[in-house]
Amino acid sequence: AQISDLFESPAALGLQHWKGRRARSEANDWIEGFVEDVREGRLEIDHGKALYTFSWHRDEKGELLDKGIVAVEILNLLRPMTAVSVWVAMIGLAMHEFPEEREKLTGAGQERLEWFIQEVRRYYPFFPFAAARTDVDFEWQGYHFEEGTLTLLDLYGTNRHPADWVHPQTFMPERFEGWQQTPFNFIPQGGGDYDFGHRCAGEFVTIVMMRATLDFLVNRLEYDVPEQDFSFEFNDIPAVPNDKIKINNYRFK
Predict the structure, then answer these.
(1) Cβ–Cβ < 8 Å for 119, 176
(2) Hey, is 138 helix, strand or coil?
(3) What angle do the packed helices 67-97 and 203-219 form, to 10 degrees?
(4) Residues with Cβ < 8 Å from 160, sequence gap 6 or more?
């Protein structure tokens, strides 16, 4: 199983859905084996690593965590870190499609780098939509929803809604200078708050990882972008360019 299976099949049906569930089970077993090896002394590992910390963490009763719980917590780190690779691809696409904006990043500070990655998260889709079935009958803004109705939340459209964004079809990182976020006007990783809404608790980690990656690509690496298919399908989850983003002839500055 691949770690990518753990985040590429959330809205899939049939075989792909069960492939994702099997991948989760296999990954749990795989990590549990590492936990056992650490605890039995068969695997030496740096004390600063997450695997060591989780393997030896004790609960409020002073007991070691169940190895299954440790595996889940490790996966909670691995899955978002792997999922961020989709955003990294979008960073590469944005720098290629908007070279004038890329030029502004050379030697730029953290603030301008963050404007750019926030605009990447707004402009390009990660999950174009989120799907759910309603639990009860209800009315919302004049629309009637019956229990069991399949509903789609347009994440991509919300991030380009003209009521919230000036020139929403334009890639414009400076829009985030002094910008004030609300729980529902910017939802690349879900809406609401982190405690009670459906917003990804790893959003801050995503931003930090993207910012570090962008700084590396702009200020420490040179590369060429060969001809490829940059288009993507809006019914894909996640929506990744058809040829991913390929670079070659890379060299360090």
Answers:
(1) yes
(2) strand
(3) 40
(4) 122, 123, 168, 169
Domain formed by 5-252, architecture: Orthogonal Bundle (1.10)
167 backbone φψ class: left, alpha, beta (φ>0; ψ -120 to 50): left
Return the half-sphere exposure (C-beta side, CA atoms, 13 A cut-off) of residue 138: 9
Using DSSP, state whether 252 is helix, strand or coil: strand
d(CA 114, CA 99): 17
Per-residue pLDDT reduced to its tens digit, 69-113: 999 888 878 877 777 888 999 999 999 999 999 999 999 999 999
Nearest Cα to Cα of residue 114 among 214, 219, 182: 214
Taking the C-alpha atoms of residue 85 and residue 91, their distance in angstroms, rounded to an integer, is 10
- Residue 167 CA to residue 82 CA, distance in Å, equals 32
Task: Please enumerate in sequence order all residues whose Cβ is within 8 A of that of 143, keeping only pairs 6 or more positions apart, or say none.
Answer: none
Q: What is the pLDDT of residues 24-76, one digit of tens each?
A: 678 888 899 999 999 999 999 999 999 999 999 999 999 999 999 999 888 87
Contacts of 133 (CB under 8 A, 6+ apart): 148, 149, 150, 151
Compute the half-sphere exposure of residue 179: CA atoms within 13 Å on the CB side of its CA: 21
Contact call for residues 28 and 68 (beta carbons, < 8 A): yes
Round to whole Å and give the CA distance between 140 and 160.
21
Tokens standing for 225? 């972008």
Q: In the structure encoding, which two tokens stand for residue 96, read together?
A: 């290629």
Torsion of CA 242, 152, 189, 246, to 10 degrees: 0
For residue 175, the 8-state DSSP code is G
C-alpha to C-alpha distance for 161 and 137, rounded to whole angstroms:
27
Give the SS3 label for residue 143: strand
